[in-house]
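Exam revision sheet. Question 4 asks you to relate a sequence to its structure. Input first:
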Amino acid sequence: MSRRLAENPMAPPTAGGQSCVEEGAMTDIGNSQPAIQVLEAQPDKKDLDKKNDRVAEFEVRAKSPLRKLQHFLHANPTAVPAIVLFLGIAAFGFIVGSRFLSSFNLSLIIQQVTIIGVIGVAQTLIVITAGIDLSVGAIMVLCSVIMGKLAVTAGLPAPLALLIGIAAGGGCGAMNGVLVTRLKLPPFIVTLGTWSIFFALNLWYSASETIRSQDVAKAAPFLQVLGTPVDIVGARFTYGSFFMLALVGLIWFVLNRTAFGRHLYAVGDDPDAARLAGIRTGRVLFTVYVTAGVICALGAWALIGRIGSISPQAGQTANLDSITAVVVGGASLFGGRGSIVGTLVGALIVGVFRNGLALSGVDVLWQEFTVGWLIIIAVALDQWIRKVSA
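Answer key, structure tokens:
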């Protein structure tokens, strides 16, 4: 057989011949010594079982109570604001007493946060997409001036003036959306610029003149309808308060029960992954900014009902107040996490602290000092909670 292989190395062994590979070794033709080991020894089944056991022990790790709390707060962003609101009411109820806990005062707090709550809804939609809108207050005031000038000065029917004002709000939001989605500019810079633009247009169109409450009531009472008081068991609410709650309920449904809401969170959490998943991120962002502009116009309607008159200088702190409500309410400035209910609770927290400190005799300066610390603590807590996903 050796002579045959020497003549034709590729020839297979004869039927009666002996194979050159025996028991896992390849035999050298010249010296009949094993050259290369082809097969390796199979691992013992017991060793495999031990390895599997070690992997299982490595994967199962007990969570500390602090880690469990971190995961709970990450999954329930409104938990902390709700606890802070409850503790704030309890604390001021103990310090101030019945004056704070009276039904009239508590309903007054809800009236005071109506504008912040409505504008905060618009701000929440932007923040969830990892953006920020510094122009919401300017859009609101500009739309209120448009409604008032058309209804009171130009004599248009109040409902028509309201619709034009809402369309103007949508147009302002569309301008922000185009600059963010088409030109790829940072939302902070875009809205900082449009805030100055809208404020300048507001002063130009209004001629820096205020339309008195009496004139609005005479020419366009429909614009003041959200300021109509409603007394319920010693508490006084307004239609604007119920309007705010209805708006919160509607946006909550959109965010939690529709595909658009899921797309919104996906874009805010990871826009690249959302794009790869088939979500049109540009369209989602543009729709969000237009919707925010429309909500700001609705806030303008609520603003007219709240103060009665139409002033180009109203709502100067609406931008920062809306951001405060959103951040204190548990939304993340990095996007992908937030809740409309949390924003409402955040607005109530700000209202409770300001009202309670005022009834306690604390100067307005220190009220703003306290609200500033609330914002810092809320952002620091958000940073800690976000470490869960790191």
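Marking note for examiners. The domain at 77-389 is CATH 1.10.3470 (ABC transporter involved in vitamin B12 uptake, BtuC).
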